[in-house]
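HUMAN: I'm a chemist; might I ask for a sequence paired with its structure tokens?

ASSISTANT:
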Amino acid sequence: MLQQTQVATVLERYPRFMKRFPTVKKLAAAPLDDVLAEWAGLGYYTRARNLHACAKQVVAEFGAKFPHDPVLLEQLKGIGRSTAGAIAAFAFHERAPILDANVKRILARLFGIEGAIQEKAVNEELWSLAKILLPKKATDMPVYTQALMDFGATWCTSRKPVCLSSEKKCPFEKECQANLSDQVLLLPRKVAKAKSPEFNCDMLLLRHGDSVLLQRRPEKAIWGGLWSLPESTWRVKEKSPKPSVDVANLTVKELLQRALPDQNISSVLNGCQSIEQGLEIKHIFTHRRLWMQIWHVTSSDAVKFNSEDLKWIPLRQLGKYGLPQPIKLLLQGLNLARDGELRN
């Protein structure tokens, strides 16, 4: 949960998550929708899906007990080499190395590793150093591993390491090759990131009475497994947009064709009234940016669709479903649902 989510947020949400899923068996037995609903707002929902799949795997293959061997841990869904090492070190006192971003930075500076950390050879060199430096006593592994992570997070930081200030004295300043060669801020070297691409899409906010139409997103898509508003195909955002259809003159039929391309929209059209252009919402993902144009449409009928991934959800039941954070905030902001209705 702490991966890519701030500590303050996790401190609030972790106890609640553990209260609902106190054991591996409870988590494995829970429907995925329940897990995603509890995870809503934390972002990076692949973590929740992997956590659920991992629990099922531990129950099925290891009798509901996590294996001690980091090699076996790495075979579990969502657990990579570094996470496997951390679990083995903290939970089972195994002499297993970790290599997260903080540890990579420490080792690259301490030993003067100048290659880009994304390069395979450099990464393997860092893994080798991480293994060599492990304490000899297995009982020291939890303290050592935590100290290593904390040192990178609070002392040997990316932009303001303590060695460049006069407030604290780094215990490794005389051994650190980056410090001795005046390259602290230059190491570790990284490959320059490409500019995040930007996209546009239309989102259908279709209401009938006190219900709103939601669509479950494909498992391998962004927000995979969550319930969101039906949307059009993403279009690359142009610097000087020249839409083929005047946005202000978009018809209900055109919108339904974009947002529900696999559905028979004739029955929906019969009950739909006017279309109203709503907010345009910008959402920033890790590697892309999305501009979502919201369109409000009211239906006089709760049309039945031929897909289990399309549901009319009463507003008071929205808390039972995992919603992407911007969609959750949208519904709250439009007073379509009170905050309490969006909580489990």
About this structure: The CA atoms of residues 115 and 122 lie 6 Å apart. The first strand starts at residue 198 and ends at 208. The radius of gyration is 25 Å.
